[in-house]
């Protein structure tokens, strides 16, 4: 596989103008508390998939949920990301509008699974106004290429949320239901569907 270009530019079409979004790998120089302050996590969820522990399958149910970060949740994700960047625990890429971070993806470097075939996609968020414009898809491709180049992992393990729309997005990327379930990851939120992505190359 060719060396990955750490910088990619995506022009996002918008009525009357275009936003220039820079997508690049995050480094220790980006690590600081407050780096996620511009990300609007807001999401309205009307249908969700949920894991049925008794019957051992995912089922679609109606719901009425507005999901957003509390300030504590935002801070926890910032601390986790900063720690990963400072101590080289993962691969992270960000989407910048000017100097504002509007989306990011983080895959942990630790291998796990029965044959150590997985790495975990730990966090993946794109600010509400920047969704459905190719930003998330490009971020996912960038981290997948990085894992393929620098890790022995064959798969990316994803706790894919519980909204139908989010899981449709992961499915469109080529993700499938996980063939092996991490009890540790599932325990974080049993409502969330466990998925995996086979790394190419």
What does the average pLDDT come to? 89
Number of domains: 1
Here the CATH topology equals Aminopeptidase
* Assigned CATH superfamily: Gcn5-related N-acetyltransferase (GNAT)
Q: What's the N-to-C terminus distance?
A: 7 Å
The outline comes out as: globular
Find the count of extended strands (DSSP E, 2+ residues): 10
Q: Could you give the order of strands across the largest sheet?
A: 1-2-5-6-7-8-10-9
CATH architecture field: 3-Layer(aba) Sandwich
Q: What is the N-to-C order of secondary-structure elements (H for helix, E for strand)?
A: EEEEHEEEHEHEHE
Question: Which helices and strands, and how do they pair?
Answer:
Blueprint: E1 7-14, E2 17-25, E3 43-52, E4 57-67, H1 71-86, E5 90-97, E6 100-108, E7 118-126, H2 135-150, E8 155-159, H3 164-173, E9 176-177, H4 183-186, E10 194-198
Parallel strand pairs: 7-8
Antiparallel strand pairs: 1-2, 2-5, 3-4, 5-6, 6-7, 8-10, 9-10
Task: Compose a concise summary of this entry.
The chain has helices at 71-86, 135-150, 164-173, 183-186; strands at 7-14, 17-25, 43-52, 57-67, 90-97, 100-108, 118-126, 155-159, 176-177, 194-198. It is α+β, with helices and mostly antiparallel strands and 201 residues long. The chain has one domain: Gcn5-related N-acetyltransferase (GNAT) (Aminopeptidase), CATH 3.40.630.
Tags for this model:
globular; 8-stranded mixed sheet; 201 residues; two-stranded antiparallel sheet; 4 helices; alpha+beta; single chain; Aminopeptidase
